[in-house]
Design brief:
It is built from 14 helices and 14 strands. With 396 residues, the protein is an alpha+beta fold. The chain has 3 domains: 291 residues, no CATH class; 45 residues; 56 residues, no CATH class. The chain is elongated, with a radius of gyration of 30 Å.
């Protein structure tokens, strides 16, 4: 839910009531009666894997500010103060990749990620500083223009204009953890049940029954013997029963409850909530040589690309209306194939032969220096021989 509030007492009361309701929903709002707060949710392995995948994949993509040229091309706007903050260090103590990862994590866990654009020298952005989501409240003024009220650590608040805050939201401003708390709670309950089974020697609890009547001394001896040799750390040993006693389980076994299948289903549910293919968070039950790459491509097309659009739109707010005509932030998705050198070099060769990239532009992507003549857009597959000047040098 968007954290917007009107500047009146009724809205403040509603906001307090909403915060109180969210607290109780987190504590007892699941059918499994397991509290699912953002911190608790990260203890769930599929949630941890999905959040880590979303954050680390996005933060691994180079983020640069570009300037549009009149001929339709673009160039790096490395002379703009925002460029090094997006591509190098967001502030003195935070790398840009860590900064992007932190805000993306905030948007997944709480629904919103905030960062202050600290301006100096007449409006120049000097640093980007993450703001804890629970310390930020958004108020709507006249014309629905938002302002951000930030609670200070030393007490009091400070209000910032919308153009001074980088605000990245989850889908419709909703927290994936809060919306999927039932699925997360069930998975946590299944995991806790596994722990209890293993703590009990991988055996279900039950009763000792007999048709005979047992006297008090016999009952006491049996109880002590059972507790000593078949419970706690000694669980799993061979039970020796006397006086016609039989052990009768009171609960179904994990096999009867299709326990593994239930855990598998909840993992898929959690993956759906975070818009990631299950195979990318460790579910290889349906993995084949032919479907892994399509799953990765689906993740890029249907999860990362929308998030990239959300991020670049949020970054644009930090620019003035005049700057927005010529400047724009872009993530370089080509970094996703960085690990596959064969595919990467094949793509480079295709781009050069198609005259989309020059050899020096490719070398720059590979962090290599340019060479003379490498800025020419030519297809080496159809160019006969070396350039004329090179032929003359060879002849001399």
């Amino acid at each position: 839910m968007w954290p917007f509030a009107r500047k009146d007492s009724a809205a403040e009361d509603a906001k307090s009531l909403e915060a109180l309701q969210a607290f109780f929903e987190s504590a007892n709002g699941t059918a499994s009666k397991i509290a699912v707060s953002p911190t608790k949710a990260l203890e769930c392995v599929p949630v941890r894997a999905a959040v880590q995948l979303r954050c680390e994949t996005l933060s691994s993509l180079p983020l640069r500010l570009y300037r549009r040229l009149e001929d339709g091309g673009k160039e790096k706007a490395d002379d703009h103060p925002l460029y090094p903050l997006l591509h190098g260090r967001a502030n003195a103590w935070t790398a840009s990749s860590d900064f992007i990862s932190s805000l993306e994590r905030d948007s997944l866990l709480s629904g919103h990620g905030y960062a202050l654009a600290n301006r100096v020298d007449g409006g120049r952005i000097a640093e980007l500083i993450r703001l804890a989501p629970d310390r930020v409240k958004v108020e709507l003024g006249d014309g629905d223009e938002p302002s951000y009220v930030v609670s200070l650590k030393g007490g009091g608040t400070r209000t910032y204009r919308w153009s001074d805050v980088l605000h990245v939201s989850g889908f419709d401003g909703l927290s994936a953890v809060r919306q999927a708390r039932e699925a997360i709670g069930i998975y946590a309950a299944l995991e806790a049940h596994t722990g209890r089974i293993m703590a009990n020697g991988a055996r279900p609890s039950g009763v000792l029954q007999t048709k005979d009547t047992l006297k008090e001394p016999v009952l006491k001896r049996l109880k002590e013997s059972w507790a000593k040799f078949h419970a706690g750390e000694s669980a799993g040993g061979t039970a020796i029963l006397e006086s016609g006693l039989e052990f009768k389980p009171l609960t179904f076994s994990s096999v009867d409850l299709q326990f593994a299948e239930l855990r598998q289903y909840q993992l898929v549910e959690i993956a759906r909530a975070f818009a990631v293919p299950p195979i990318l968070i460790g579910d290889y039950s349906r993995a084949t040589w032919s479907n892994f790459e399509p799953s990765a491509q689906a993740y890029l097309s249907f999860c990362l690309v929308p998030r990239i659009k959300a991020w670049t739109g949020a970054i644009a707010r930090l620019l003035s209306p005049e700057e927005q005509r010529d400047l724009g932030a872009e993530f370089e998705t080509g970094a996703l194939v960085q690990a596959d050198i064969a595919k990467r070099f094949a793509a480079y060769a295709s781009a050069i032969s198609s005259r989309i990239l020059s050899p020096n532009e490719v070398r720059e992507l590979e962090n290599r220096g340019p060479y003379a003549g490498g800025d020419t857009y030519a297809n080496p597959n159809v160019t006969s021989g070396a350039p004329a000047d090179q032929q003359q040098e060879d002849a001399a």
